[in-house]
UniProtKB/TrEMBL annotation:
GO molecular function terms listed in the Swiss-Prot or TrEMBL record: oxidoreductase activity, acting on the CH-NH group of donors, NAD or NADP as acceptor
Lineage per the UniProt record: Bacteria, Pseudomonadati, Pseudomonadota, Betaproteobacteria, Burkholderiales
Protein name: NAD(P)-binding domain-containing protein
Origin superkingdom: Bacteria
Domain NAD(P)-binding: start-end pairs: 7-193
């Protein structure tokens, strides 16, 4: 498949690029400094700023899927939605690297709204929830084919085990009360979804 990864130089983006290349996909890496990535078979890198709407749309054209791994703050995620739509016929699917903050820790309670949620991550988590709300508000006849993958609370570099659970809108917590997923396993779950769409027009989550 042809997959564009926006934010390809970031913590999550680099692991998504690795996982996609390892599976034999053709990857277009996009970021302001994408051309700094080491050259590898199957990888095309293009420096781009998301605020350049026409260039972004052109960069997305011809791909089966776009994975956005940008931070929610500092860039306007609606630019990405608009750029995908502007591709027109044969627009790629849009898969968004989401946040855990909008997951439910108890019925009706998203963890970003709980007193224990770390202040340092709150603004980013609220912006992530806003993007999820925007996607969920897409009209039923919208051409946008989107998926939002929320990680567990802890998303850190680690092992690629390929062993994890998937959930929908509730925070996944292991037997010891910990909510975690390595970025490597997060990338496995994301590429599984790219190859076999199971969560179109909805959010899902991954954790141990
Ligand atoms: N547990 C959680 O909920 C959790 C934990 C960690 C991360 N996350 C989420 O995961 C996502 C990715 O996080 P991350 O840590 O991988 O972020 P990151 O390391 O900061 O990476 C951001 C990427 O976006 C690119 N970028 C930034 N501004 C850009 C622009 N104007 N135009 C084009 N590219 C731009 C950066 O590359 P350039 O600078 O080269 O442009 C980089 O590749 C975020 O949405 C974050 O909220 C969630």
């Amino acid at each position: 498949m042809k997959i564009a990864i926006l934010g390809a130089t970031g913590n999550v983006g680099t692991r998504l690029v690795n996982e996609a290349l390892q599976r034999g996909h053709q990857v277009t890496a996009l970021a302001r400094s994408a051309e700094s990535l080491p050259a590898r078979a199957g990888l095309t890198a293009k420096n781009i700023d998301v605020s350049h709407a026409d260039a972004l749309s052109q960069a997305f054209a011809g791909h089966d899927a776009v994975i956005s791994s940008l931070k929610f703050l500092g860039t306007d995620p609606r630019l990405i939605i608009d750029a995908v739509k502007r591709v027109g016929d044969n627009a790629p699917r849009l898969l968004v690297v989401g946040g855990a903050g909008s997951l439910f820790g108890a019925p009706g309670v998203q963890i970003v709204d709980t007193p224990d949620f770390p202040e340092a991550y709150k603004a980013e988590a609220l912006a992530g929830r806003q993007l999820l709300n925007t996607l969920e508000a897409e009209p039923a006849d919208s051409t946008l084919d989107w998926t939002f993958l929320s990680p567990s609370a802890l998303l850190l570099p680690g092992e690629r085990t390929g062993k994890f659970r998937l959930g929908q809108d509730d925070l996944l917590v292991d037997g010891a009360g910990k909510s975690a997923i390595s970025i490597e396993d997060y990338a496995v779950a994301m590429l599984d979804e790219v190859e076999t769409p199971r969560h179109t027009r909805r959010r899902f989550t991954v954790g141990y």
